[in-house]
Amino acid sequence: MEQALPTSRNFFAGRAKFVVGILLIIGAVIFLVISSTQASAQYFLTIDELNARGPAILNKDVRISGAVIGDSIQYDPKTLTLKFTVADVPADNKVIDAQGGLAAVLHAAVIDPSRSRMQVVYNGVKPDLLRNEAQAIMTGKLQSDGTFQASELLLKCPTKYQDAVPGQTGGQQQQPQSQSQNQ
Prior knowledge:
By secondary structure, this protein is of the alpha/beta class. It is 35% helix and 28% strand. It has a 5-stranded mixed barrel with strand order 2-3-4-6-5.
């Protein structure tokens, strides 16, 4: 019995099928990554940028940031409805640094009545860090009445951490006390 040796034609045909199969798998993975990224993409805008987009941005998922106006905070614990106003803050870190840091920018935004402002409505438990001059980062949709319906609310309060990490926030660093001073 003689075995027929594979011809070069059969060898290349098998290899071509393998290469085509690998290319199809790679193409499918690339398609899935691109389509899922586009479906979950969100805009990150300042309040001024959001207002400039006008009706084109209504009812689209967006992420915005602003300084919380403390006097505007209203919370109903029965319905878990939280309402507050945010003032526009710059998004560029270089601009924030040039204006004295995040705490200074948030303070300036809150006391400046000429800054753009937006009413926010959030349904959920009131976060502990929600206070005057906190930075609110919200994900949600701009409603036709101009309010922002937040589905996610994150807060930064730079003054809360100044004492905890003075070297990183520009505060005065305290020297640790020696044991002889404590006795």
